[in-house]
């Protein structure tokens, strides 16, 4: 028996597709156009081919920024994912405290990115900030505006404070979806807490943790506002991440060709690493 296929639903999706095309595809084509051409002003363009791509890939500046970006991304993933899972495991499953905990976890996510950077900038100032003043009063030499290590610690702490809640909420959603029958069977078998986590909770959280890792990876690789407001890429260039360096080249130096080529390389790196993460996380999923 042949089923009647109704294609009218595509008309509901069409506005979204047009909006995505306007906000993503058209700017992307503009960037591609700039990446293969040179301009000397007056809207005159000259074909440059892959010159800007070669220049960026051979640039020590790009390699340094990429290295700092990778260090930042993998540092916050190594902290936020285990910490988020641990907090989710400690949260109650029933009762009035569930709502309280969920609201508290969601609060950091509601704060705008520029406000987060400004908050931590004031909080960590060595002379008037609560964190900076307290550490110095305890005898710890702390000044994130002059010390690269202190700047990195402050930057990572700020991101962990801001985004661990996202991991917590996703992991908690995976935990509450586990039927009580699994826990009852484990209790009958005398399974330890570690065994319950390893063989029941962690497998059931695999999909949500995959989403959490991908979201945090992509967001941390694109981060700009928080570190720019907090450190401005300093002291020196010690916290100049790839996004900050790209903005400096595009708007500060107004080198549109190299900036466009760098942004496309940036985009491809995110796609490649996201695909690798997804492939590794979903390996043997069918089994």
Mind explaining what this structure looks like?
By secondary structure, the protein is an all-alpha fold. Helix content is 71%, strand content 2%. The mean pLDDT is 88.
User: What is the fold named in CATH at topology level?
Assistant: MetI-like fold
Number of helices: 13
Q: CATH H-level name... which superfamily?
A: MetI-like
Residue share in β-strands: under 5%
- Low-pLDDT residue intervals, each spanning 5 or more residues: none
Q: Main attributes?
A:
287 residues, mainly alpha, MetI-like fold, two-stranded antiparallel sheet, 2 strands, 71% helix
Short structural summary:
The protein is mainly alpha-helical and 287 residues long.
Give the helices and strands, then pairings.
Layout: H1 9-35, E1 37-39, E2 45-47, H2 51-57, H3 60-90, H4 97-106, H5 113-124, H6 130-137, H7 148-176, H8 180-188, H9 193-204, H10 206-221, H11 225-230, H12 242-252, H13 256-281
Antiparallel strand pairs: 1-2
Helix pairs in contact: 1-13, 2-13, 3-7, 3-10, 7-10, 10-13, 12-13
């Amino acid at each position: 028996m042949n089923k009647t296929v109704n294609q009218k639903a595509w008309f509901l999706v069409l506005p979204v597709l047009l909006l995505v095309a306007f906000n993503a595809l058209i700017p992307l084509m503009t960037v591609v156009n700039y990446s293969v051409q040179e301009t000397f002003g007056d809207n005159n363009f000259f074909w440059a081919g892959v010159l800007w791509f070669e220049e960026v890939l051979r640039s020590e500046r790009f390699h340094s920024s990429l290295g700092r970006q990778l260090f930042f991304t993998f540092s916050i993933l190594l902290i936020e994912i285990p910490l988020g899972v641990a907090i989710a495991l400690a949260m109650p499953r029933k009762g009035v405290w569930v709502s309280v905990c969920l609201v508290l976890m969601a609060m950091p996510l509601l704060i705008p990115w520029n406000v987060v950077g400004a908050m931590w900038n004031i909080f960590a100032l060595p002379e008037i900030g609560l964190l900076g003043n307290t550490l110095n009063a305890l005898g710890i030499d702390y000044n994130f505006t002059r010390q690269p290590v202190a700047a990195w610690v402050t930057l990572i702490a700020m991101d962990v404070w801001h985004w661990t809640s996202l991991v917590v909420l996703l992991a908690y959603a995976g935990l509450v979806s586990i039927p009580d029958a699994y826990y009852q069977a484990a209790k009958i078998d005398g399974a330890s807490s570690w065994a319950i986590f390893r063989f029941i909770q962690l497998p059931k959280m695999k999909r949500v943790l995959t989403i959490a890792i991908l979201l945090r990876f992509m967001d941390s690789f694109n981060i700009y506002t928080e570190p720019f407001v907090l450190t401005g890429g300093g002291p020196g260039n010690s916290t100049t991440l790839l996004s900050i360096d790209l903005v400096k080249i595009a708007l500060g130096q107004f080198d549109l060709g190299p900036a466009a080529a760098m942004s496309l390389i940036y985009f491809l790196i995110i796609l490649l690493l996201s695909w690798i993460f997804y492939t590794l996380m979903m390996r043997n999923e069918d089994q």
